[in-house]
Design goal:
The chain is mainly α and 384 residues long. Helices cover 52% and strands 11% of the residues. The protein contains eleven helices and 16 strands. The strands form seven sheets. It has a three-stranded antiparallel sheet. It has a three-stranded antiparallel sheet with strand order 14-15-16. A two-stranded antiparallel sheet has the order 1-2. Strand 6 and strand 7 form a beta hairpin. It is globular and about 50 Å long. The termini are far apart.
Length: 384
Amino acid sequence: VKRDGTVGTDRRKGFVTTTRDAWTFARAFMVTGDETYLDHANHALEHLFAHAWDNTNGGWYFTGDELGNLTPYSPYWDPNTFKWSFVQHYALLGIGATCDVAHDAATCARFQQGRAFLDNKMWDSNPAQLGYYDQANLNLSSKSGKGFTSTVDALTTNAIQAELLWPTTYHQRIVDLANIVVDRLAANMDLSNVKFGYPENYSSSWSVTSSSTGGDVGHVLKSAWVLARVYLRNPDPRYRAAARKFIYEVLNQGGWDETYGTPYTTYNWSTGAITKLAECWQIEQAITGGLSNWYIADNQEDRDTFLRMADRSLQFFVNNVVDKTYGGTYKMNTVSGEVSDISKSNFYNVEYHSTETFFFTYLYGNLMLHRTPVTLYYKVPATP
């Protein structure tokens, strides 16, 4: 979708995009009660369930066309030929949200099926190198890598949702993952060769992949957000301390534009070089990470700092990222607010991240900050 709302000619359909659509519609139903949104969520999941599951090996495929036929992402890269943690985790996003609001048995069973695949096929239970693998071949006979995506994105997309739905079954996993964020990612910020942030990619035994030096400022802030969320379910003070460390890394070490009130985008952890642009989903992490850590902070200085970061980022988002003429949100802006990427959506995001921004701002802003009640809608099947 282009800046003026016109649609391009690319007919590919990302299954990750499909589940993000389902999340968006499920949460829209949750705050409005309009069942049309729930119908859209279920429609998206019908497509996902019909075409995206690997019936031979288990796990989710990445891309297909509008009819569900598997297609490569590009002539040079086909994630349908292996199992990537990004896909396996994000595929569960919309399934979990729809299970949450509707408690449909078949949808919830699909969510648990995906979690069983992750926990039985993609989890390394070796205590010395605990964590989800980043990749595996199709039949799961060879697995490799660990890192940000397989850990932090696991929490944001399905692990916290699973724990909220079935706390007895899934509580330990969010603790395991939060411990990895603290003991691997936050700890590696202190390595002598790390100039900003932390290395995002690792071997299966958690050795830093030195050839991969890129990172996203938004990932550092997202790490703070997930730790705050887990802290509320398992109040380990190490989670609060590490989340605080992530936020101050961004604010004090060059990841934040103080003039305009927005986080920057990509960085090189080896050189400390940072790209000074403002990307919609990375701004979101400053809002959600700031509000959630304001809530759990144990001193007034931190609370003031975190709330200011969230508030300024939200102002930047509303003033510059939201298109007030045609609707929707821009992907990328300069730090002074000019649009630098005229696309409204891409293969991964569509409007998921912008909807997520305002969904959590609505909940955190009312329930945590202002202590104001909200009405949330569910459509639970009648039972005896």
